[in-house]
Design a protein that fits this description.
2 domains; alpha+beta; Alpha-Beta Plaits; three-stranded antiparallel sheet; elongated; Translation Initiation Factor IF3
Length: 209
């Protein structure tokens, strides 16, 4: 009686990584104002934010590279002996600045703070062509899996080379390159873009024949 031969499988994981330098920086800058007279703090907040924007534009940041991302007006309360007491209002105005002059990031931050910004929301370095680098990492991951399979096959003294039957992409989070250090003796804020590592991971199932 014919008996179907059981399929023998080996699963290996391959990983690939590509290091690249980011090309764009995004900085979120905010002006936060507090007071009891809403009209006054709105005007003060607007004046300071306009000053921040104008200073960045004078430094070479294009108008199209500065975008308002958030504007809030909210009441501020304090709690004394379990009782809620009105303290005033808080106005928050945030912008997102984009630049390809990564070496000037610290300069832009210092300039914004000098002209009225009092909160730095985030500093993010990115690449416009990250998909291209990820494809390279995938190729390296597949090569890594193949190398591992050859090593396993040699160790097991397999007569035939295993056949890849299924390749599954494993999702991995991509880190954002950002490195900042404390204020230097020069009084400037040093911010370094560093490098970004694009990673890819694959699960490959091989059939042993």
């Amino acid at each position: 009686m014919f008996k179907e031969q059981e399929t023998r499988m080996i699963t290996v994981f391959g990983e690939g990584a590509v290091k690249v330098s980011p090309s764009t920086v995004h900085v979120v800058l905010s002006v936060v104002s507090r007071g009891t007279e809403l009209g006054e703090i709105q005007q003060e907040n607007a004046r300071r934010m306009n000053q921040v924007i104008q200073s960045l534009q004078k430094a070479g940041v294009a108008e199209a590279s500065i975008q308002t991302t958030d504007f809030q007006i909210r009441p501020v309360y304090d709690y004394v002996n379990g009782e809620q007491r009105f303290q005033g209002y808080e106005v928050i105005n945030s912008i997102r600045m984009t630049s390809d002059e990564l070496s000037r990031t610290g300069e832009f931050v210092d300039l914004a703070v000098k002209n009225g910004a009092n909160q730095i929301g985030s500093i993010e370095f990115t690449m416009p062509n990250s998909d291209k680098h990820y494809q390279r990492a995938l190729v390296l991951a597949l090569q890594d899996a193949e190398t591992k399979m050859i090593t396993i096959g040699t160790s097991l003294k397999l007569q035939n080379r295993p056949i890849p039957l299924k390749i599954e992409e494993q999702h991995t989070s991509q880190p954002v390159a950002f490195r900042a250090v404390a204020m230097a003796d020069t009084g400037k804020t040093p911010i370094e873009s560093g490098t970004m590592t694009i990673r890819a991971s694959l699960q490959v199932k091989y059939q042993i024949v």
